[in-house]
Amino acid sequence: MVLNRARRNFWLLARVVTAYIGAVIGAGFASGQEIMQFFVLHGRSGLLGAAVTALLFAYLGGLIMFLSVKMKSASYRDIFAFLLGERAGGIMDALNIFMLLGGLSVMMAGSAAVFEEQFGLPARAGVWAVTVLSSLVVLGGLEGVLAANVFLVPLKFLAVVAVSTAALCASRHLAQSSGTGWQGGGAGGHWLPAAFLYVSYNIVVPLAVLSSLGRMVPPVLGLAGGALGGLLLGMAVSLVTLAGLAYMPEASFCQIPLLYLAGHLGQGFRHLLGLLIWLAILTTAIADAHGFASRLAPEGGSRYRFCGIFACLLALPLSSFSFAGLVRLLYPLFGLAGLVLLAALLFVPPFKSLRKF
């Protein structure tokens, strides 16, 4: 009896952790380009930014799960209403629906680019691979999404850690590079704003995913899963930052910095990284489709499955545009919404708590 309960609690914890990590580690993270812009280009100070990022991800993950469990939420609509009020929350809700569809289109276009450039396969095959697999996962309902995350997310997380650690160990000029002040080209202009911008930019999809778990996770496991997922994300950010610093300035000129790092480790690591980037795209696409479906069908069931597949089909037309073009068009919108959410998450719950006393 005790063993069964412990096993059940472990899997619930694993589902929260992997859902969180899977929603954050997308193509930008797996390519190393996000980490390059927000952390590596700030030099050793970027490691301070990575530490702040870990704390923010841990706090926000725990907070989102706490609010979700307390409200017994099945979608992010309840969280938006609490944080922003009914009117502003409704506007953010509508915006978020379009953002999830846009993010799904971006992931499909990203899969097309990876299939064509990395694997030498037809671009449309990449689009349909993500469409079909995301639809199949959503057909399994919330349990199917969580089960897919438990299987796929550790693979891409371990691949990021493996490539970064191996590249770090193989570097012959780590001490010289990490001690050099690479400054001036990083996002935000300073390492501290960059850390906050990075978290705000990456909090929208995790909120949509984690808020759907409020009815199935006990409070303690929810808090622990959100905090642990955030700390693991921070660890991955720190490792990639260290590895990037070890190969500066050469790595800064690459579109896919982790691919440059993997190139120093042999062809096998290059293939591993190509698979990693595609897995990151797939799991983010699944998170987007799930966030869309759980918002329109919070009770789950056949309507949830229909909405998830509908989202995949609805995102198809936009996926015919280039990956880079979609990123330029949609990601500034994601960043703006993320800043609003980050500010609300940091200030509204403490303010409402103080008003009770």
From TrEMBL:
TM stretches of this protein: 12-30, 50-69, 90-115, 127-150, 157-175, 195-213, 220-248, 268-292, 304-323, 329-348
Q: Does the keyword Membrane apply?
A: yes
The superkingdom of the source organism is: Bacteria
Identify the keywords attached in UniProt to this record, alphabetized.
Membrane, Transmembrane, Transmembrane helix
The entry's protein name is Uncharacterized membrane protein
**Taxonomic lineage of this organism?**
Bacteria, Bacillati, Bacillota, Clostridia, Eubacteriales
